[in-house]
Every structure is written in structure tokens, then in C-alpha cells.
Amino acid sequence: MKDGMNARGSCLCGAVKVAVAVNKQNVGACHCDMCRTWGGGPLLALESVSDVEIEGEDNITVYASSEWAERGFCRRCGTHLFYRLKTGNHYAIPVGLVDGGEAWHFDSQIFIDQKPEYYRFANETHDMTGQEVFDAYQGS
């Protein structure tokens, strides 16, 4: 597994293109109610990204899904583009958006206390409850 790479992708219709610097090739799953409602299942995302560049921003709709975060999607085709915190520069980019066959490493799950019983992943991961996630971000 290599770290420090660039990843690129686009929405289904090609109206929005995304480029990110990937600091670690790790993928995390979020099982919160909002992510599962948004995508029909857990959000599998790259969390260790920086230098997010978006082309076609006029085709993006941003929805404020909570007091602290918002979600972006293509207004033409509906592709999920990002989850980001309203303060700071934290983005979660859906791994399927930029997946070109890289050797991603699935290593974490958050809001594990909201994960429904009807699915589970076999990987050993670092798991955090919703409260542990909030506590971690308040401490940073």
C-alpha cells in the first residue's frame, strides 16, 4: 500500500470532477443514520485527504445535513461527491468516486452503535461510537 498519492474521479454525468491528495490509502465506514439514509447503506469514504479540488462547482448542490456538516452532490445526476465539516478543512470523499483499482485499506468504522444488525464487515477495524467521534473532534 502506498500513501501520498493523488486520486481523481467524476460524477456519473461528468459535470463535476474531483481531485484529492490522499495522505493515507485508508477507507472508513460511517454507519450513522444520515449516511445510511443518504446512500442506502454505510458511507465508505476516504478520510485522509487534503487539497480537494473541484471542477464544475456550478453543478453542485450542497445540503446542510447538520449543524456541523454538509453533503455535496451533483445537481444533474445525483452522484454523492463529499461530506465535509462546516469548520476546518475535513472532507470525506466516497471511495467509489475516485476508485481506480487502488489497493485501499479498510481500517475504521464510526457510529458503530448505529450500525443495523443486517450487515457486518469481516475486516478488523478501529471502531468508534457516535459519542466517541464527537469527543474526538471536540478535542482537536
UniProtKB/TrEMBL annotation:
InterPro entries: CENP-V/GFA (IPR006913), Mss4-like_sf (IPR011057)
Pfam families cross-referenced by the UniProt entry: GFA
Protein's UniProt keywords contain Lyase: yes
Keyword field: Lyase, Metal-binding, Zinc
Gene3D superfamilies xref list: glutathione-dependent formaldehyde- activating enzyme (gfa) (3.90.1590.10)
Coiled coil: none
Limits of the CENP-V/GFA domain: 7-120
Family label: Belongs to the Gfa family.
The protein's name in its UniProt record: GFA family protein
Species per Swiss-Prot/TrEMBL record: Billgrantia antri
